[in-house]
Amino acid sequence: MSAALLTAGYAIAVAWWLPRLLARLTAAGVSARLGLMAWVAAMASVLTCAMAAVQFLVNAAIANWPWLAEAVCRSVTGRACAAAVYRSAVFELALSVAAVVAAITAAALALRYARRVRGAQRRTRAHAEAARITGRSLSGADLAVVLDDPQPAAYCVAGRPATIVVTSGAIAVLDAAQLGAVLAHERAHLTSRHHLLLTLTRGLAASFPGLPLFTQGPAEVARLAEMCADDTAARHVGRPALLAALLTMGTGQPVPTAALAATAGAVATRVERLIDPPCHARQARNGAALIAVAVALTVATCLITAFASQLA
Predict the structure, then answer these.
(1) Which distant-in-sequence residues (6+ apart) come within 8 Å of 167 by Cβ?
(2) In the chain, where do the E strands start and end?
């Protein structure tokens, strides 16, 4: 029982309090890739300890059923709980029903998560297939199709094969360099399999709606994934073309690269970090802090589960 309480307490503490620290460290996207790693490490740590807690609890219940029955009985009625009560068939039946209900609840959460993940994957594959059927191939761009829509937009859809969708509205306002930047951004998403991270984290948010780590995590993972794709695209096509593409897609009007300086006063975080990238010293400090968090989570998970195993 002590092992289950230890691992469960750690999981709850991390899921409740760590998002505040992670949100501060990743707010500006200084080290987007490391920030993404830290959020994923936190979720993995919580899930690992939560599953360990369930296992320890089940093992304790099986190995010490009479003691568990007595502990539950005395926690409810105090010293008035006699052996004739907690050893009775009625009491043990009630305790068994409670254990079964708990097990069914855990199984239902796992099933709900699996269904959401499978459903999201089916919808994604269906959307990719529909886009390939209704759209036309974009000349000179593998996996890219053009859909007729006046609203500028571009996104990638995982599938077999994966598909990059660009609307005719985007084609109308982007020049060749900017279109190349948009395609490089979407290819970065596909190469890094960001869609899998988004699907998994959104499933966790639906399964554990009361825990801040899982409710805030999907939005943070999505934001950092966009920044990671920005960084990859910028290395391939350069920052000016990517910045111009982001502003053009956001405004729906062609934005020449030379005009970027005039618009730098009021832009989104993604554009701000590309216009004014952090200095190397700040990147090093922020990256070191995020690595320290990820390492601490990994070490703490290993130590707590090992210590809990000794207690069990």
Answers:
(1) 146, 147, 148, 149, 150, 151, 152, 153, 154
(2) 136-137, 144-147, 154-157, 163-167
Q: How far is CA 265 from the centre of its chain?
A: 31
Q: Is 42 helix (H, G, I), strand (E, B) or coil?
A: helix
Provide the token pair at 122.
């089916």
Collect all residues with Cβ–Cβ distance below 8 Å to 139 and sequence separation of at least 6.
none
**Could you tell me the end-to-end alpha-carbon distance of the chain, in angstroms, rounded to an integer?**
7
In order of 155, 173, 211, the CA distances from 268 in angstroms are 18, 20, 28
Q: Name residues whose C-beta falls within 8 Å of residue 212's C-beta, 6 or more positions apart in sequence.
A: 15, 16, 19, 20
Q: Which of 312, 305, 306 is nearest to 8 (CA)?
A: 305
Cα angle value 293/234/257 (rounded, 5°): 135
- What percent of the chain stands above pLDDT 70? 76
Q: Give buried/exposed letters for 202-231 (b at 16+ CB in 10 A, else e).
A: bbbbbbbeebebbbbbbebbebbbbbbbbb
Q: Which pLDDT band, with edges at 50, 70 and 90, does 63 fall under?
A: low
pLDDT tens for residues 187-246? 999 899 898 888 889 888 888 888 999 999 999 999 999 999 999 999 999 999 999 998
Rounded Cα distance between 196 and 188, Å, is 13
The C-alpha atoms of residue 144 and residue 136 are separated, in whole angstroms, by 9
- The answer to whether 8 touches 50, Cβ cutoff 8 Å, is yes
